[in-house]
Structures are given as C-alpha cells and as structure tokens.
Design brief:
Helix content: 10-25%
Strand content: 15-25%
Number of helices: 13
Radius of gyration: 24 Å
Number of strands: 16
Largest sheet: 5 strands, antiparallel
Number of domains: 2
Structural class: alpha+beta
Distance between the termini: 37 Å
Order of helices and strands: HHHHHHHHEEEEHHEEHEEEEHEEEEEHE
Length: 411
Amino acid sequence: MQTPRLEGICASVLTAVGIMLFAPLASSVENEGGPELHSLTAYSCGSVGCHADIFQQWNSSMHANSVPMKDPIHAAFYRQLVGDPLREGTQMGNQYPVCLQCHAPFAALDGRTNLNAKPAYHDGINCMICHTFSQYTGRTGQGSGLPGGVHDYKLSSDVLQGALGRYFSSHPDQRQGEAAKSYHPYAIEPNQKLLKTSRACIGCHDIRDNADENVFEEDRIACQACHMPKINGVADHSMQGGHSAGMVKQALLLSIEAKPEADQLLTQVKLQNTLPHSFPATMPLRNVTLKVVAYAQDGQVVWENFHTNAAKEDPKAVLVYKPNGYIGHPPLPVTAMQSLADSHLKAKETRVLSYKIPATKVALIRAEAYYNLILPDQILNAQIQYQQTMPAYLLPNNKLPGSAGVAELRF
C-alpha cells in the first residue's frame, strides 16, 4: 500500500528539476567541465532510461526516503530533537546535526541543514553517494565505536566506484572491440573490496549488535547478501529491511511445544533469531510483542498471555531496547551507548518462553510475533505534538504492527 508523504508537491517539483538539470549527462562523453559527481541526483542515473529499473528500486527504498521530509516518523523525531529540516543553520546541541551525516550525506559534506537547498540533498542517500565511496577509513563518530556516516569514507569527486570488477571509460573512442562497450558518461573504476563487502554499509549502520564485529572484513558474509540480493544478475537496489514485511518474516522462527500435566498444558514458545544481527533490528526503536492465545473448539478464547498491555502483564513477551535517556528526551539511536532495558534477541539467539495454560477446552494454541517500527509511547507522543502533520495511517486507530511470524499447535 502506498503511504502518503509529507512533502508530496515539493518532491514532484524537485523530481522535475532533477530531470531537467541532469538529463543531458546521459549523452555526455567527457567529465571535464561538467558538474561534480556529488552535486548530481539519482534522477540523472535512472530517469532518462540508462538505469531505469535500478532507479525505480532505489526510489521505493528507505535510502531514497532517508531525509525527514520524506518519512513522517523521521520528520516527527527530527523536529522534536533538531528542528526544521528546511531551515539553514539548524543545530543540535550547539553543533551540526550528526544525524545528517547518514540521512543526508551530501548536505553533511557541504555543512548545510536546509535539505531543499539542492536537489541532491533532498535525495537522501542516492546513487552518487555510495558509488563515490572509494575507501572506508574508519569510525569518526563522537564516542568509541560510533559511525560517522559520510565522514567515515574517502570519496571520489570525478570517478565513480563500481562493483563489477572492470573499468568503464568516459571516452568510447579510446577502446576497441569488446572493451569499447565499457562506456559510461563518467569514468568508473572497480572497487569490489568496498562495494561487495559490508564496508559499504557500516559507515552508517551499527555493528555493535552483530554476532561478528569484524563483519566488514573481506572474508565475512556481507550485508548485501541479504539486503541487496542478485535478481537476474543485478543487485536489488530496493535494499529492503525492517520496513519490508517479507524481510521481517524471514528473520524469526517460531515453534510451540506443550506437555499435559494435571489440569494444565506446560507450554513452551521458542523464538529463534536467524539473523547475524539482533532482532527485531539493530535500531533501538524497533520492537516485537509475542501474543499467545489458547482457543476452544468453537473459537472462544480460553486463555491469553496478556489482555491489553504486554509490557505490564507479560514483559518477557516484549522484545525492546530502550537507550539511556529514552524517557522524556531520547538520544539519537546511533549515540545510544547505554541501555535502560534490552530484550532484543541477539544474533542467532534462541529463546524459550514458558506458560502454564489451563487444559480445559483447549483445542488450539496460537503464538504470533507482532513487529512494530517504533515504540507505541514514542509514536503517541509524536502524534500529540505533530497531530496536524502526521499522516492518517500513523494515527492511533490505524497504527497497527505487522506479523513477524506465526506458530500453531492443535490438540
């Protein structure tokens, strides 16, 4: 289902501007005299047909929607913690907003905070940012081990970086035969050790909740293996993750066992995290609630692990991470070095939750894990503060979590 965007009209205008400004690059054969790569938008790559499929994939991704004007949840938190994303000179804690280093890297490179000042800022994380990363240089974020986003990389201003292992020339007349086909309006140099490994990702994405903190090494399974799988020989640039119901359902294995004892069923619900990082995610706001219900033959509910509030009635059924400072004024997730509570499933962890269910009339036990992108009280606070701008699908009556997995046991 398409979700409404806060900036609808603005995005359409910028899309048109991007196409008009950069469409001529598709026929350019020289880099000299043209705009620097970091000023280009994604529309210059896909809107005129060269990479149309990849552009459409990216355009539906959270990378394309990484700026607060495009994501209403992000917008609510950004306004609460930072300010107006369309105002120049906005500061967070008397310094440049650290969140823009990942969410609007081109703006961060220029030290700008008006994210509509240039079309490339409005793109969020576009083709040119990832394909100009030439080297991962290490973490520069404030505090030990924190990512610094775009500042964790050495960038190229005039040569694109490619994952195919071959060079592409911007001068088609310099090559003969098969080599002449390796043409691109901008020269490309091979960089598999970056773009085909997790080094392309960890400048922004946290590694603390991975089973292997050396995930960025060349011999490790890369993030791209799951988040950018090859489809018909081409990497999927929709880069699906926690916003994808299909990806979420792949992460968790649920199973139920029950043993009769006297007038009870000693029931165990097993939750197995198949991921190499924490579940529901490495992002603190993501949370999961396990609902366990016993039904009679006629469908009547005989027993349930909670009625209205899982956090109070069955706290072990809630997978949640609350960073230090969460109450009242939450820190940015990337800076949350301490936690008040952490019940996320660790990488590859299997956890068993035990229940004693009255055996009378029970014909079916059903367990379902409900995944939510954001903590209920956080979204409620955002709705109260920004109720005039929050889309209808985020209002309390419509904000429903999605299923992350189901298991049933019949008697």
